[in-house]
Amino acid sequence: MIKPIVRDAFFLNQRSEEATKVDLPIAQDLEDTLKANREHCVGMAANMIGYRKNIIIVATGLADIIMINPKITAKVDPYETEEGCLSLPGTRKTTRYNKITVKYQDKKFEEHTQDFSGYIAQIIQHECDHLEGILI
Length: 136
Description:
Blueprint: H1 9-12, H2 24-36, E1 43-45, E2 55-59, E3 64-85, E4 88-105, E5 111-117, H3 118-131
């Protein structure tokens, strides 16, 4: 289901909780909502659509990746950048890392550890910040 985008900073500043199999419908809502906002958005966290659960979606260009309970376990090569967010107007400066390693579960709750770099790594870092209640 396509959900409205949350713009309430108080809600967005709260940390999300671990997701379980009961929360799997949120992944579908993220997929539907990203698809509806694709022209303005390349990733979303569950709190952006009203759920305080550790689930993100990232558009890679080839496919969208759902990450459940993602954890960035390694960061290499910091750089300064400026980012926008569908939940907030304008852009803000931030530090990101060019290469990251992420441990996460897929929609079958199978664990994966994967390396990402460049723009995809930046999107993942932005969405993981959302899960921690950090607004960029």
